[in-house]
């Protein structure tokens, strides 16, 4: 069994996942638009056509998935959770933290803590909160 995070965006899922692929060194392996739904699923309203129905980002053996929200429901942002990344290399953790922080908000600087060699939290420019944790130093 694997447990994966599934994020929801407000029309910028494709932009976010391309950004995450660059930040994390991953590859966007799926990017399906609402307009690509099979005909038997029904008509797609024009305002949904180019939104992302499903996205899949693969980083090593890990997967992050997402979609765009339907504009018929008010989008309330990503709240009450974070995407956590655990690494064993401080330099890689720092690189990822700094990349995710571009245009975002650093909530806790990437620094030594009592539980980790380095830890930091950042909310990226898409509103996704990330926790970057390095328990050991390489």
Automatic annotation (TrEMBL):
Residue ranges constituting the PhnB-like domain according to the UniProt record: 2-132
Family annotation (InterPro entries): Glyas_Bleomycin-R_OHBP_Dase, PhnB-like
Highest taxon in the source lineage: Bacteria
CDD domains per record: PhnB_like (cd06588)
Pfam families: 3-dmu-9_3-mt (PF06983)
PANTHER family linked to this entry: PROTEIN YJDN (PTHR33990:SF1), PROTEIN YJDN-RELATED (PTHR33990)
Protein name: PhnB protein
Native organism: Pseudomonas segetis
């Amino acid at each position: 069994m694997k447990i994966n995070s599934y994020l929801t965006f407000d029309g910028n899922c494709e932009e976010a996942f391309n950004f995450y692929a660059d930040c994390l060194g991953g590859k966007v392996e799926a990017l399906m638009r609402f307009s690509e739904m099979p005909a038997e699923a029904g008509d797609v309203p024009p305002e949904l056509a180019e939104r992302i129905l499903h996205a899949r980002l693969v980083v090593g053996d890990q997967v992050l998935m997402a979609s765009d929200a339907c504009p018929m429901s008010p989008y309330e942002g990503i709240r009450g959770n974070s995407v956590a990344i655990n690494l064993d290399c401080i330099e890689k953790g720092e690189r990822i933290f700094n990349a995710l922080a571009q245009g975002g908000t650093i909530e806790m600087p990437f620094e030594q803590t009592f539980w980790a060699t380095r830890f930091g939290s950042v909310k990226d420019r898409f509103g996704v909160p990330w926790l970057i944790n390095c328990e050991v130093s390489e």
